[in-house]
Amino acid sequence: MKKVLAVCFILVFLSCHMSDNKNDSLTNNEGENEMIETILTRRSIRKYKPQQVERAKLDTVMKAAIYAPSALNKQPWEVRVVQNKEFIDKINDRFVAFARGREMQGSASRAAEPGFSVFHGAPTVIVLARDKNNHSSMLDVGLLTQNILLSAHALGLGTCPIGSVVSILTDPANKELVDLLKIPEDYEIVLAVSLGYPDESPVVKERYADKVIYME
Description:
By secondary structure, the chain is of the alpha+beta class. The protein is built from 8 helices and 4 strands, in the order ααααβαβαβααβ.
């Protein structure tokens, strides 16, 4: 009888201990799931190797991208994968001219520096547009973008969402650039993503866990 009571006491103690340390348990289990690991280890990359991304990997990333959910399955996006260096450089030159003399945020504030690249030197740029007549399209493109970021990371590629370049891609003065991208009239560009092989390993930045509140 004493042995039974002792076993019960140990089980109760372990149960309470595990309950009190549920966050530690979650942390320990995170590494056992490849998807969770991909999410937690993804970083925005701002330095790339010159090596171009292979078509097979691009196809995989794009397949994962368009499997993103969308309201009523409308898929209100247009995606352009640009690997033409001359075209990428042309967009960069227009952005540098636009940013000159303006107060820009983030890395765009260095636009006047020699050798600046709004795409951080990435050999591939993905341009994303949304259906202007679909009120859910901005959110849907966001979901599509997250699939791009995560699938690319899973394949050993780096990415960085770039919003600042939209300022020139939506400027009527640069309409010929949009025409080359063959974006439909009822769509508008909302984001670009740089893509390539990482040439840096950024450290983890603080996440604000206190912004998540459980209501039990």
